[in-house]
Amino acid sequence: MGIDIGGVSSSFVRSFGESGVLVEEVVDSSPAEKAGLQVADVILSVDGVPVADAEQYLSLMQTYTPDDTLVLELLRGRERLQQQIKLSRLPDGYEMTYTRDVFGLI
């Protein structure tokens, strides 16, 4: 999809009464950027399935394939939004670049 995610804080859960995953980065020219996702958005659900944490989100995303279209329920500030996203294949060499940039390997 083209995002890096993290967990939301316990104070977020207390304040909003919900859990989800925090969008920490949106990759340029990715499906997420094209759909309008922004850093600091909180993903609450994917196709109506609530997302409690990053592990659940990643597990759920593995059930989709390139060219699938999904709907994310987001919290942006205090506003609830729904964003439709059409997934695509990772660009050639993406995994190697990601591994190098994130882990300093390769």
Number-wise, the strands total 6
Number of helices: 4
Ends distance:
23 Å
By CATH, the architecture is named Roll
Oligomer: single chain
**Structural class designation:** alpha+beta
- What gross morphology would you assign? globular
Radius of gyration: 14 Å
Uncertain spans = none
* Percent of residues in helices: 25-40%
**CATH topology-level fold name:** Pdz3 Domain
CATH class: Mainly Beta
Query: Quick one: biggest sheet?
Result: 6 strands, antiparallel
When the domains are counted, the total is 1
Task: Write the H/E string, N to C.
Answer: EHEHEEHEEH
CATH superfamily: PDZ domain
Average pLDDT figure: 86
The percent range for strand residues is 25-35%
Describe the 3D structure.
The structure is a single chain. By secondary structure, the chain is an alpha+beta fold. It has a single domain, classed as Pdz3 Domain (Roll). It has helices at residues 10-16, 31-35, 54-61, 94-103; strands spanning 3-7, 21-26, 42-46, 49-50, 69-76, 79-86. Strands 1, 2, 3, 4, 5 and 6 form a six-stranded antiparallel β-sheet that branches.
Summary, kept brief:
By secondary structure, this protein is α+β, with helices and mostly antiparallel strands.
SSE layout:
Elements: E1 3-7, H1 10-16, E2 21-26, H2 31-35, E3 42-46, E4 49-50, H3 54-61, E5 69-76, E6 79-86, H4 94-103
Antiparallel strand pairs: 1-2, 2-3, 3-4, 3-5, 5-6
Supply the key terms.
106 residues, six-stranded antiparallel β-sheet, globular, alpha+beta, 28% helix, Pdz3 Domain
